[in-house]
Amino acid sequence: MWMNEPLPRVSLMPLEPELHTDALQRVYELTPGYWQMYHLPAVPQGQAARDLAAAQEDPRRHALGILLPNEPGNPAAGAQLVGLVDFRLHWPGPELVYLGMILVAEPFQRRRIGTAAWHLLEPWLVQEAGMARARLGVEQFNIPALKFCQSLGFALTGESHRIRSGKRLVRLLYMEKELTP
Question: Which domains does the chain carry?
Fold first, then answer.
């Protein structure tokens, strides 16, 4: 897909544990490469339930599903959950949003769905949530994610931090972006 083609039409929807756990677990199952980066053979059972419960426990944290219409131009055809945007408002500081994840299921990747989701979310972060900057951490070895975040306007800050992921230490490279409505 060429960069000058229009972005796909996506919607963002708050995910509720009692309604969306199974659908999010399916998105995770359709993204085996993500889990393999962490030396996991597959998504851990119950991962979606844990993630949605954690988001519900923190009032600053939001888990939004990325929805793609089943038939573009036909709202009666419904939509399918194809990804997740997970973020925290005013964390780690005021007017700062920390983007934990933009994940798109592998069969839907490379269609600019993540880009479309970000372009839908960014104005809301500024106008409704009062955010001025966005921050995220990308695993040093996740080159596609680094390039994706750079394409959204994020720049490396020069900061990094090692975190434990299972039995390994992983270096996160931090990126930031001034938000524009």
Answer: 11-178 (3.40.630.30)
